[in-house]
Design brief:
CATH class of the largest domain: Alpha Beta
Strand content: 25-35%
Radius of gyration: 17 Å
Largest sheet: 7 strands, mixed
CATH topology of the largest domain: Rossmann fold
Number of helices: 8
CATH superfamily of the largest domain: Vaccinia Virus protein VP39
Strand order of the largest sheet: 3-2-1-4-5-11-10
Shape: globular
Helix content: 10-25%
Order of helices and strands: HHEHEHEHEHHEEEEEHEE
Number of strands: 11
Number of domains: 2
Structural class: alpha/beta
């Protein structure tokens, strides 16, 4: 469940400020890095308020070469603020979406920030990798620490605002509650996926399809994955 429809873009940015920091991380993670210039073709999945899109344009990517996929129209207002990019509304589970995305590709870089647990499935990953150009990269990140079954509350300060966060596991579903001073609580649910599950799918696809390898970068509580497309003779 990814229920952001009642949150307008400004509320989303205020409530999830903690997760919107360092939006350029996915853009510079590949090693060797993808060249970011006016000709770079970027596809950003689950774009939210457009933090990655904004960072990409600040790094020289032309708005006309950016495609953003967003499942909730309520959150996409921020994307249009950043330039005349292509915004596509649709669920990644609908494989027909990829024919539409292919018209703007192939892509040098595909990113997905903190949302892979909502849609991860072998067929979807295979379709996404199929949109990459030769030497292109898919870069996504996700958390690597399994929540406890007993709710764990955390409090933190971001700028002048105070936040509270509660996360706990019911079966294999993460219950995540976020609240900010002066705002009501917001809850989302998504699947807990073991790092070994990500590795297993990527290993299978690496053996069967045209990308040479994948790497995982561990950073505190999150992992960043880089999947690189190659040209097979």
């Amino acid at each position: 469940m990814n229920d952001y429809k009642h949150l307008m873009g400004e509320d989303y940015e205020r409530l999830y400020a903690k997760y919107l920091i360092r939006p350029s991380r996915l853009l510079v993670a590949p090693d060797p890095a993808v060249a970011l210039d006016k000709d770079t073709r970027l596809l950003d999945l689950c774009s939210g308020s457009g933090a990655v899109v904004k960072a990409a344009m600040e790094m020289g990517v032309a708005p006309a070469n950016i495609v953003a996929v967003e499942e909730s129209q309520a959150m996409s207002f921020g994307l249009h603020r950043h330039g005349p990019i292509h915004v596509v509304h649709g669920h990644l589970e609908y494989l027909g979406l990829y024919d539409m995305l292919a018209k703007h590709g192939p892509y040098d870089l595909i990113t997905c920030r903190q949302a892979v647990n909502y849609w991860w499935h072998r067929d979807i990953v295979e379709a996404i990798v199929g949109l990459l150009d030769v030497s292109g990269c898919l870069v996504f990140n996700t958390f690597n620490t399994k929540p406890a079954e007993v709710p764990q509350a955390k409090q933190y300060v971001h700028g002048e605002a105070q936040f509270a966060e509660i996360a706990y596991l019911v079966g294999d579903v993460v219950q995540h509650v976020q609240a900010r001073e002066g705002m009501g609580m917001h809850m989302t649910t998504f699947r807990w996926i073991e790092p070994e599950t990500f590795a297993g799918v990527l290993d299978e696809l690496s053996d069967e399809h045209a990308f040479a390898t994948w790497t995982r970068i561990r950073e505190d509580t999150t992992d960043t994955y880089v999947v690189r497309q190659i040209d097979h003779p």
